[in-house]
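Target chain:
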Amino acid sequence: MSVQERKERERAGRQRLIVATARELAEEQGWDAVTTRRLAERIEYSQPVLYSHFRGKREIIGAVALEGATEMAAAVRAAASAADTPRARVTALALALAYLDFAERHPAVYDAMFQLDGGLAFAQEDTPEPLKDAFAALLESLGEVAGDGVHPGLFTEVFWAALHGLATLTRAGRLPPGDAERRVELLVDRLAIV
């Protein structure tokens, strides 16, 4: 291994450590607790080292969001692959429940993906691949049940918006607890008609 390869590997390792530490701190104490000073203290690097990887908190949030999008896409695909027909993928609630479970288990990552400014472009030419892939994971299953004359991408956007609304309202305590699965069943029954 050349010196340059070793340096690149060490740099990538530091960057992963910064992102993992920011994510951990955000999950424990919220995003307000994530500062470059606190991150530097936790990972035992100087603030200039952090700034050599990220220009600030916004870019760190963006990195966490991209990591989360990759994880969400994998979770949605794993849930959808358990069903054997397009309708079953949705009516089995696997896809929708996997999405809501991800939002519940990883609230800081979900916030980084959809609530906070991570400097990432959504629905644009320059949208980062992990974000495109997370949407594609939803589209792969939902596009098949969009129905005649309905654009699969548009149907997926509406379904995703409904899931996001459920996730956000549930996390904020705006919906009564205990009916999450019934809400998703209703959503599936009304939107995913084949």
Observations:
- Residues 97 and 184 are 7 Å apart (CA to CA).
- The two ends are 56 Å apart (CA to CA).
